[in-house]
Amino acid sequence: MLIELTKIPIPNASNPSQHYLRVSLNSGPVNALSRALLVALAEAISSANLPDSHVQGILLTSSLSKVFSAGLDLTELVLGANTPTTAAEYLAHFQRVVFLLASSAVPVVAVVNGAAPAGGTVLALVSDYKLHLETVADS
């Protein structure tokens, strides 16, 4: 499973179907943003922004303990991109996720619970709010 989606109920909400959506990146060992992970992430963000979704906010985090996301999957980008077109298509998936996060109708909170170099930092930066949790690696 590349991402885990969890509905978090909102206590005392006027509408009991309202909830937050926790989107946990789960693509070990470092949550590299593969094409498949980017597609799954785009689908989750898009569905959370549908009018009938009842999602009041998105919490973007990692299910891994020491890394939020290492960013672009360089193996897939370099070795999997046989042509410039393939590389451009891969980067278009990343750009789509960045656009969806930046333009989300519901607030996005990046709960950065580990290392976030390169593209991982971009995911956090385009979120509305950033929360860094101290990990063992930070100590």
UniProtKB/TrEMBL annotation:
GO (cellular component) term, any one: mitochondrion
Molecular function terms, GO-annotated: catalytic activity
GO biological process assignments: fatty acid beta-oxidation
Superkingdom classification of source: Eukaryota
SUPFAM superfamilies (UniProt xref): ClpP/crotonase
Family statement drawn from the similarity comment of this UniProt entry: Belongs to the enoyl-CoA hydratase/isomerase family.
Protein name, UniProt field: ECH-domain-containing protein
Source organism phylogeny: Eukaryota, Fungi, Fungi incertae sedis, Chytridiomycota, Chytridiomycota incertae sedis
